[in-house]
Amino acid sequence: MIAVYLLFAIAATSRAGLQIVTRFEAAPMAYLLSAFAATVYIVAAVGLGRAGRTGRLIALACCTVELVGVLGVGAVSQARPEWFPDETVWSGFGSGYGYIPLVLPVLGLLWLWRTRHDLDRAAASRPRPSQFAPDQSFGPPAT
Description:
The chain is mainly α. It contains 6 helices and no strands. Helix 3 (about 55-80) packs antiparallel against helix 4 (about 100-115). The chain is elongated and about 75 Å long. The protein starts with a helix and ends in an 11-residue tail after the last helix. The model has no long low-confidence stretch (mean pLDDT about 85).
């Protein structure tokens, strides 16, 4: 999953960067949306690759933003094609990328849901400090 997000981060960043540098005035909204999608893919890859609850929350937020983005931009690009004179990663529901942008956030969310118990098990198996640390209080025991 991480590798696919990294691949899309590289592809979307490269395409958006080239479009912004060479012909930004032709379709500024489309190219900025592609740059935003690239940023979401980068942050999602980092979140998926990071261990712990914070990484999972980052990945969850990114997959959710990605799904809403591809559905929203896809719908608007179908209703108002004149607003998208050039393709973005999310326009046409990701048709320019083989609809992978439409499927990827669903797979990411399913992966996060299926692996949610792995984090809970890892946390439960760690010893708590009170389980192995001696009492560090000073003075006589309370009665």
